[in-house]
Amino acid sequence: MKKNLIFSILGTVLWAFPVFAFARNGEEPKPVDAANLSIRNEVRRSIGSGVKWLVTKQEEDGRWGDADYPALTALAVRAIISEPATEPRYKGQMDKGFAFILSKVQSDGGIYGRGLASYNTSICMMALLQAKEAKYVPVIRKARNFLVNQQSDFDKRGENDNVFDGGVGYGARWAHSDLSNTHLAMEALFYAKKILVPKEGEDFELDWDSAINFVGKCQNLPKKNKQDWVSDNPDDRGGFVYFPGSSMAGERELADGRKVLRSYGSMSYAGLLSFIYAEMKPDDERVMAAREWINAHYSVDENPGMGEQGLFYYYHTMSKALSLSQVKLIEKKDGTKADWRRDLSKKLFDLQKADGSWMNENGRWWEKDPVLATAYALLTLERIYYAL
């Protein structure tokens, strides 16, 4: 019973998130717990320093980073707009950022430049949702329809007989689904459906059952997932891989000579988030297995199974999943308990540069780009701040 306690209210907490997710400059909440006042002040100071640095990296045309990938601008805008402040700050910079995002709206409704259409659209949608501006609703609606149309159905019969059916990929040349893009699309579509009133005759909705079917095919859970690569090693059970048949954490060879795929941190949190966005019951075997893997592999020092690769993406995904689940303490494998918000905050304090930025010395997945790493770090700290 104790093992499951931290997630016991998973199915009833989804509305805890929008309070944070759509907070913006000028919306300063009261402390949740007076005992956290000191760490809360430290988090706020770290956020302020990071946002101040991030603002200086905006280009003249309103973007951050590569012009072909508006998701970088959307992540920066979200980090800046969520800064806790008693008065609105950086309005001019945010307006320019949103204008750049809108300049990337395509005729098909997607929001992207040269490629990675689904990825960019999902993240840009979240920025537009967070703005809470009625003028963006038509753009959000078309982007929602675009993402729904990105859901894979390779035989067009809705039977999920292809392992990639039900998921979402990068789009364009990256035709097959993966868990990272799927969970980002599910996030944007979950929140969009909460604010969009369907138009008469409109039938644009994700097939959520098919999406979860795909997510389940990425989970190391032999009882539910019968693919040959699925691991029954205790170190993998319940965790997730990148897509069916591929893990960024590589393979392991079992005693019987069979080669299976290793679970790893960032995708395991992405898998749990997918279950949350699909509003699955907390006692579902797949949900329970995911949270057990997460408890057993708790770390703020590395992306479990990947070391420093994708570390800031991992922090961001971890903070979303644990916040949504209203987890305060993690019960680790050795029986001790960890206050993940304090642990993660202190780790990010240590990693922050003197100028307020963050950067991953490991360049995998663009994280040597300080704009990307700083945006991830700020979004992580802001999520922590609003719960302290």
Tell me about this structure.
The protein is mainly alpha-helical and 388 residues long. Helices cover 45% and strands 3% of the residues. It is built from 14 helices and four strands. The strands form two sheets. A two-stranded antiparallel sheet has the order 1-2. A two-stranded antiparallel sheet has the order 3-4. A hairpin with a 5-residue loop joins strand 1 and strand 2. It starts with a helix and ends with a helix.
Shape estimate: globular
Number of strands: 4
Describe the strand arrangement of the main beta sheet, using strand numbers: 1-2
Order of helices and strands: HHHHHHHHHEEHHHEEHH
**Mean pLDDT score, rounded?**
89
Distance between the termini: 26 Å
Number of helices: 14
Structural class of the secondary structure composition?
A: mainly alpha
Tell me the major beta sheet.
2 strands, antiparallel
Report helical residue fraction.
Answer: 40-55%
Walk me through the topology.
Blueprint: H1 2-5, H2 17-21, H3 37-55, H4 70-81, H5 91-103, H6 117-131, H7 137-149, H8 179-195, H9 208-216, E1 251-253, E2 259-261, H10 265-277, H11 285-296, H12 311-324, E3 329-331, E4 337-339, H13 340-351, H14 370-385
Antiparallel strand pairs: 1-2, 3-4
Features:
disordered N terminus, mainly alpha, 14 helices, 388 residues, 3% strand
Summary, kept brief:
The protein is mainly alpha-helical. The protein has helices at residues 2-5, 17-21, 37-55, 70-81, 91-103, 117-131, 137-149, 179-195, 208-216, 265-277, 285-296, 311-324, 340-351, 370-385; strands at 251-253, 259-261, 329-331, 337-339.
